[in-house]
Design goal:
single chain; 174 residues; 5 strands; 34% helix; globular
Length: 174
């Protein structure tokens, strides 16, 4: 039985250790939306380790299994240099990945603009501290792309933006 290899450009947005030698990662991909991928038999702790960290970007070679995708290879890996990052940058990266995982469903293929938004957000972490209101701006942009915020409703103040965000998050019922 042959398996089809699917290359997918993606960003790891969640990671769960499964047993002693396996890691389940959720990858936001350009091609397939969010996919859950299993790195088995210690692969996540050895050759694929950098590509299995939260915020890592790479081209993942994945194979569709009966219930879950399996990781077979990675290339073009870029990992945010966390050892050089400040606590604020680490917190920002964790927030971006967790917020994305919370609102983008596995069963939908997001618009390319969602992938690009996450990509730009994480790229900002690599170089400098994000702007003060970047997290709220990210929340607003993501929820707008997902259709929870009416594009015509532009916030006129920070308080107005917070009301819009809280209403949209409540509507998303997450």
């Amino acid at each position: 039985m042959s398996h089809i290899l699917y290359p997918a450009t993606g960003i790891v947005i969640a990671r769960t250790i499964v047993g002693e030698a396996n890691v389940l990662i959720r990858i936001l991909t350009r091609e397939y939306g969010i996919v859950s991928v299993m790195a088995q038999n210690g692969a996540a702790s050895t050759k694929f380790a950098p590509a299995c960290t939260i915020g890592a970007r790479a081209v993942y070679d994945i194979v569709r299994g009966k219930r879950i995708w399996r990781l077979t290879g990675v290339s073009q890996v870029f990992v945010i240099p966390f050892e050089k990052s400040t606590p604020e940058l680490l917190q920002f990266c964790r927030y971006i990945t967790a917020y994305t995982a919370r609102f983008v469903n596995n069963d939908e293929i997001p618009e390319l603009s969602i992938y690009d938004l996450v990509f730009r957000a994480l790229a900002s972490v690599e170089n400098k501290a994000p702007e003060k209101d970047w997290i709220d701006s990210y929340r607003y942009q993501l929820l707008s792309l997902l259709g929870y915020i009416d594009q015509s409703e532009k916030p006129t103040s920070r308080e107005h933006m917070m009301r819009i965000l809280l209403r949209a998050e409540e509507e998303a019922n997450v």
